[in-house]
Amino acid sequence: QVQVVESGGGLVQPGGSLRLSCGLPGNIFIITRMGWYRQAPGKQREFVAGITRGGNTNYADSLKGRFTVSGDTRNNTVYLQMNSLKPEDTAVYYCNAARLWAEHEYEYWGQGTQVTVAS
Fold first, then answer.
1. Could you tell me which of 38, 109, 42 has the C-alpha nearest to residue 80?
2. Are 22 and 5 in contact, with CB atoms under 8 Å apart?
3. How many CB atoms lie within 10 A of CB 44?
4. Per-residue pLDDT tens for 10-61?
């Protein structure tokens, strides 16, 4: 198993910034990719951004330019810098990590961290 721990959520005013962090304490497996998803009340969980072991990043189209993912799967860390936050960014943000074993991908999720954008 892989433990996934997020931090950095909180309350921020519209237009503000937050930086989320995610780590995999005690992990011994090779992680192929890490990323962020979010789930707003009454909505399905959606992809936000991700980074591969090779350092390639990808984003949800609607968030490009405001959110930046960084980190290093070799160090079991991923970050999400969120700028120009909007009320519609309010959600629980989840960190995701994946590893390969015998040609099968296993995914692991954190408990989530709440981000609230409000005046």
1. 38
2. yes
3. 7
4. 999 999 999 999 999 999 999 999 999 999 999 999 999 999 999 999 999 9
70: left (phi over 0), alpha (psi -120 to 50) or beta: beta
Q: Tokens for 89?
A: 């960014």
Fill in the amino acid letter for 3. Answer: Q
Query: Over the range 3-28, which residues count as b (16 or more CB within 10 Å of their CB) and which as e?
Result: ebebebbeebeeeeebebbbbbeebe
Q: What's the rounded Cα separation, in Å, for the pair 30 and 82?
A: 27
Class of residue 75 by CB neighbours under 10 A (exposed 0-12, middle 13-18, buried 19+): exposed
Q: What are the CB-based long-range contacts (under 8 Å, 24+) for 116-119? A: 116/10, 116/11, 116/12, 116/90, 117/12, 117/13, 117/14, 117/16, 117/85, 117/86, 117/87, 117/88, 117/89, 117/90, 118/11, 118/13, 118/14, 118/87, 118/90, 119/13, 119/14
